[in-house]
Design brief:
By secondary structure, the chain is an alpha/beta fold. The protein has helices at residues 10-19, 39-43, 61-74, 94-107, 125-129, 136-155; strands at 2-4, 31-33, 48-55, 58-59, 82-89, 110-111, 116-119.
């Protein structure tokens, strides 16, 4: 399952790239917006990719609300499952990555890769609020995360 939120399109593009990268037709990828994802969705998934922007040096509010809503209902019920993180950031992204890592630690998830942070270098109000276009190289990196997750789940190594 890929849980995503995006206000300007960058994290959505990253999530979609990861979703469409599965080399195994037997792997079902669910691409779900964070505002529409509940505890049952999390419980019914074998692995997770979380795609979010970093806003004000923190995890985006909609993504944080997702974690707030589902954290306790799935606690101790998804231990050991694999996860990866995709972050669209204007300048850094590290704090959002740390926040997701802390949540994943509480859930006892296993990271399959370091957080993938795509920096858009948006630094003015106009560029921060503008629609984003993620370049082909960075989308390929997102695809690789998606393909790795799918292949690991299909092979039973995650």
């Amino acid at each position: 399952m890929i849980v995503w939120h995006s206000a300007t399109g960058g994290a959505r593009q990253m999530a979609e790239a990861a979703a469409h990268a599965s080399p195994d037709p037997d792997i079902t990828v669910r691409l779900m917006h964070a505002a529409e994802t509940g505890a049952d969705d999390v419980l019914n998934a074998d692995g997770y990719i979380f795609a979010t922007p970093e806003n004000l040096a923190a995890l985006a509010g909609v993504m944080k609300a997702f974690f707030d809503r589902v954290y306790y209902p799935v606690l101790d019920r998804i231990n050991g499952r694999p996860y990866a993180t995709l972050i669209c950031a204007g300048s850094d992204g590290e704090n959002a990555a740390r926040q997701i890592a802390r949540i994943a630690t509480g859930w006892r998830l296993r990271a399959i890769a370091p957080p993938l942070i795509v920096c858009t270098h948006a630094q003015t109000p106009e560029t921060i609020l503008a629609p984003k276009t993620i370049n082909a190289t960075d989308l390929k990196r997102c695809e690789e995360i998606g393909a790795t997750m799918a292949a690991g789940l299909a092979a039973g190594i995650f």
